[in-house]
Hints:
The protein has 11 helices and 13 strands. By secondary structure, it is an alpha/beta fold. It folds into 2 domains: 2-137 and 278-323, Rossmann fold, CATH 3.40.50.450; 139-275, Phosphofructokinase domain (Rossmann fold, 3-Layer(aba) Sandwich). The chain has a 7-stranded mixed β-sheet, with helices on both faces. Helix 4 (103-114) links the parallel strand 4 and strand 5 (119-123). The N and C termini lie far apart (53 Å). Residues 9-10, 125-127, 169-171, 221, 245, 274 line the site of 6-O-phosphono-beta-D-fructofuranose (F6P).
Amino acid sequence: MRVGVLTGGGDCPGLNAVIRAVVRRGVQTYGVGFVGFRDGWRGVLDDQTMVLGVDQVQGILPLGGTILGSSRTNPFAVDGGVERVTATLRAEGVDALVAIGGEDTLGVATRLAEDGVAVVGVPKTIDNDLSATDFTFGFDTAVEIATEAIDRLHTTAQSHHRALVVEVMGRHAGWIALHAGMASGAALTLIPEQPFDLDRVIQVVDDRVSGGRAPIIVVAEGAEPAGGEMVLKDASTDSFGHVRLSGVGEWLAAEIERQTGVEARSTVLGHVQRGGTPTAFDRWLATRFGLHAIDAVHDGDFGVMVALRGTQIVRVPLAEATGALKTVTPELYAEVLGQ
Ligand code: F6P
């Protein structure tokens, strides 16, 4: 049996741990041969491959990024894209695919599975917004990085009696903001799921400053003021139709300074949250996902995604994972507001 492996979408700490687990178990337990597709679905579209075996995955467990490369290529947005995908799989003698990705990459996998392609999905994203799994790998690392950064910003904000706005990733889901905001004791945490009241932000800053505190506001990049609009980097979109965000932190800091007279600064954590070595939790989760994904391939159980439910790894229909985003519930958000 020959299995293709690809990593698509924004990269994420733990991708290499999945690739390593898939390949090692595939070769050593099942005698599977592998081919690596470069840069996500682009490699399958253009038949761009790399050798993938036990030698290639040696030492990559703690390595950030992905040895296969990644892109946000959408074969369904390309003329004749699906035909090119199936032609490549035929030409490469690929019997099954392991697709490691988020909503977009696995959305493509879902549609290809419906067309009869033998595919198993593995959920990745620092955003933790994929349905049907309690956690995606990469999220824990991103929260850890954001929390450490916010802790550091606390001390400099306090020294200068400033308000500090920290913008974290999260286009449609505020999971990183929610977890890092609570872990670092932020004065306010603003998420995309719940438009924020600017007057309340101003009030909280005023109260904190009057009490001799330097408030930290954690804001997800997709958060928007009630009655306002999402702040965009520019008007461009990727092949899945996503706009580029970033700017809400800078905007909010300027508003705080203008309305309160308190000196305010903003920090955009950006891709720092995605780079570097995965935490032990993410290595553990990614490795388990990899082992279970190749088990599913071996069992001929296709059109599924491996998922974490409690402490168990289970298989769920791909469509269940990609149907709707997993967003922060009002109940969970109430917890961080009430801390
Ligand atoms: O992969 C998810 C993510 O990191 C989002 O949190 C963020 O909005 C987006 O990717 C950034 O994408 P890019 O790396 O293409 O700028």
